[in-house]
Amino acid sequence: MSSRQLMVNLTLRELRTKYKRTALGWAWSLLNPLAIMVIFTLVFRVFLKIEPPTGSPSGLKNFPLFLLCGLLPWTFLVNATNGSINSLVTNANLIKKSYFPRDLLVASQVVAWLISLAIEMSLLTLVFLIMGNFNLLYLPVVVLVMLALAVFLAGLSLALSAANVYFRDVQHFVGILFQIWFYLTPVLYPVSEVPDRARSLYGLNPMVGFVEAFRDCLYHVRLPSFARLGSLLLVSVFSFVVGLWVFNRMEGRLAEEL
To answer: What SS3 class is residue 58?
Structure first.
């Protein structure tokens, strides 16, 4: 079986088993972010009275939509990374019995969750279109940012999944890291709320660029700057190259460690 065919089969397996034997099936991929959106909207918009920023130049001022533009890519990050971290451990028997490119187990997780993100983003884009707050010419840019984010996560997941085989504490450490990382990413608030003196350090967080790029296209209805898009592509390629290098260095003893 070719690597391409194996990749397709592994991805289809993940898609089929994700919501297997659930009454709502794939509807859960939409209900989960919507439930989180409702909770955060009640807490931050209704109770704490936090005002959403006004889209520039769109003029839109809507906290749930502002939130979803950051929440969907963040949820993709968490789901794809958490699924990938344990992909080698949960497929230990398969790895021990036969040889195949083990990185496909990680890649299939990222691709499966990318498909979920594509569905969610399609519906969010449809909402913006109905509201007259989206330019279809920006759709290729949204797709480009989604693919760049997937490449970034593939590199991160390759490194973490291999490390988790040797050190099972990695998955627990990542859980704590995500809690901190979430509040260092402008999901609930605009970047303008970050103090100027901390802005340069804050910008080192790659998820800041991804979230802002999605908001530029969808909420503000403007193209992200070429500098932002270029930096996202560079970060994605760098993450993938480093992640693949780490995975290849650790792959030799995976079967023995498992």
So the answer is: coil
**Angle at which helices 103-130 and 28-40 cross, to 10°:** 60
Write down how long the chain is: 258
Cα–Cα distance, 11 to 113 (Å, whole number): 9
**Quick count: other Cβ atoms within 10 Å of Cβ 30?**
15
Q: Which of 215, 214, 192, 188 is nearest to 202 (CA)?
A: 192
Cβ atoms < 10 Å from Cβ of 47: 9
Nearest Cα to Cα of residue 14 among 119, 85, 113, 118:
113
Structural contact between residues 14 and 26, judged by C-beta atoms closer than 8 angstroms: no
Name the burial class of residue 178, with classes exposed (0-12), middle (13-18) and buried (19+) by CB atoms within 10 angstroms of its CB: middle
- Angle 97-100-103 (CA atoms, 0-180°, nearest 5)? 115
Single-letter amino acid, residue 107: A
Question: Quick check: 76 and 110 in contact, CB under 8 A?
Answer: no
Residue 88: count of CB within 10 angstroms of its CB: 24
Rg of the chain over Cα atoms, rounded to whole angstroms, equals 19
Looking at residue 172, what DSSP letter applies?
H
Residues 133-155 have pLDDT tens digits of 888 889 999 999 999 999 999 99
The pTM for the full model equals 0.90
